[in-house]
Amino acid sequence: MERVYNFNAGPAVLPEEVLLEAQADLFNYKGMGLSVMEMSHRSKEFQAIIDDAYARVKRIYGLGDDYEVLFLQGGASLQFLMVPLNFAVEGKEANYINTGQWSKKAIAEAKKIGKAVHIAASSEDRNFAYIPRSWQLSDNPSYLHITTNNTIFGTEWKFDPDIPEDIPLIADMSSNFMSKPIDIQKYSLVYAGAQKNVGPAGTVVVIIKKSLLEKAIPGLPTMLDYNIHAKNGSLYNTPACFIIYMVGLVLKWIENFGGLKKIAENNKLKAGYIYDTIDESNGFYRGTVDKEDRSLMNITFRLPSEELEELFVSEAKKNGMIGLKGHRDVGGCRASCYNSLPLKAAKTLSEFMKEFQRQHG
Length: 361
Ligand SMILES: *Cc1c(COP(=O)(O)O)cnc(C)c1O
Prior knowledge:
Layout (H helix, E strand, L loop, with lengths): L4 E2 L9 H11 L17 H18 L5 E6 L2 H13 L5 E6 L2 H12 L4 E6 L18 E7 L1 E2 L4 E2 L12 E4 L16 E5 H4 L6 E6 H4 L12 H6 L9 H17 L1 H21 L6 E2 L10 E5 L3 H13 L2 E2 L10 E4 L6 H18 L1
Parallel strand pairs: 1-13, 3-4, 3-5, 5-8, 8-9
Antiparallel strand pairs: 2-10, 6-7, 9-10, 11-12, 12-14
The structure holds pyridoxal-5'-phosphate.
């Protein structure tokens, strides 16, 4: 059976090479007589797997010894809590820029545990159709938190916010993690749920500056304390062993692809096919966000009516393209074009869009 073109927002498409390699390893990993799923997380074989994944994250982003990499559980959603719990220190304000649903959830968690929160900027006035170009930090910020790609609304930060160096910049990069080169030195903490760009659901990659770790609030509950996870190399408790192995395979795929520069070129090409089709459709397809802030990962658009949108999604499915329905909170259509989506998939979708317009425009 042929595989479909998968435009799901997450869990999302994985590289075919990775799936085939995992399949070959599944029953008997490297002649050990068992699968990675059955291995002790304390074995030297698993240690080699997680060490390899750490090393790849560091190589891909060019990280030095001043950063720790962690593979945690609880998803990006638990990071919404862990960040303020560890770093929103007494007497300072946790600063956030609100660019959509996920930012709001991050803000809500900080408030739930009674932290002082300051909204430095928000794009809610135009239903999150843009990325703010200016912000007003509070007098004494503990950190600034941003969401670098807004999976639901389809906007993406194309620049790193310039803030004073002594204020830690923290980013939820779940949906554009490893999709392009970034100036990682500007960030003190980055987190990303694996299921968008680097693996199956089940682990969140956290990249954290050691100098920030030193400033964490002490005495936190064990599983919510970054320092405990760092000291134990993400092995305080049983980690998501098989998922981390899968992430390692995806990271290897990224490196073999040529790294972030090549990945970014490919992502631009893919998004270009679809955005060009939208822009050349004389308004049949309508992009929902400001052009300069369009996400290369999650392409959101509307058709002239909800009936046509429904038909579009179902006809696309009949043509082997799935996952094109917009998020339930915003409606419309959304094509997620993560790293592993083949170029051919984006091209096929753009051709389908043109044909659909010819028939229904
Ligand atoms: C998907 C997503 C999340 C939530 O991730 P979970 O792993 O489900 O907790 C958070 N932030 C962004 C930007 C996302 O795209």
